[in-house]
Amino acid sequence: MLVENLKIESPSFKKVLYADDIKDVKKVEFSRAKAIVVDYGQSDIKVLNSLLEIKNRYENSYFILITRDACYESTIENILINTIADHTIDCKNAVRKLCACLAHLAQEEQPVTIIKNARWHQLEKQQHLTRMETMLLPYIVSGKKNKEITRYVNVSGKTVSHHRRNIYRKFSVTNLTGLYKKFDQFL
């Protein structure tokens, strides 16, 4: 039903590909993709890490994540979802909103949507992260090492290390484990 509606409403979409696992999709398919729709209903940091890598590799693709409220309970997942997704849709309204989102995307009118849980909103307000720290934070919480991060963002390893230390200092932690614990504390 959804595919038929899309063909009528947005004839610019030539092909729709379904995959149960993101690893089953070939690189050539990602390079051609105008939009990547992910049904992210169960918490899985590994899937989010894979999606973050794909997003960095194929910057022109538009990521739409269909989520559940439970996905925003973890601050780490919240940060990764907001970094990956150009648009998020609650599963209850998924079909209706997905059709509208893809129709707007075909016309290049789609705004960016960001959702934050209360803990992340409070932490973000208290810490006053710089633009660079905000850009590096998703890579840090996804477990990437400084050298890996330099491959994704065009900055030196020393710069990444400096900003990582600043992030740890601002959150009053000494390592990534401390950062995870800080994000999962109740306010």
UniProtKB/TrEMBL annotation:
<keyword id="KW-0238">DNA-binding</keyword>
<dbReference type="Pfam" id="PF00196">
    <property type="entry name" value="GerE"/>
</dbReference>
<protein>
    <submittedName>
        <fullName>Helix-turn-helix transcriptional regulator</fullName>
    </submittedName>
</protein>
<dbReference type="GO" id="GO:0006355">
    <property type="term" value="P:regulation of DNA-templated transcription"/>
</dbReference>
<dbReference type="InterPro" id="IPR000792">
    <property type="entry name" value="Tscrpt_reg_LuxR_C"/>
</dbReference>
<dbReference type="GO" id="GO:0003677">
    <property type="term" value="F:DNA binding"/>
</dbReference>
<feature type="domain" description="HTH luxR-type">
    <location>
        <begin position="122"/>
        <end position="187"/>
    </location>
</feature>
<dbReference type="InterPro" id="IPR016032">
    <property type="entry name" value="Sig_transdc_resp-reg_C-effctor"/>
</dbReference>
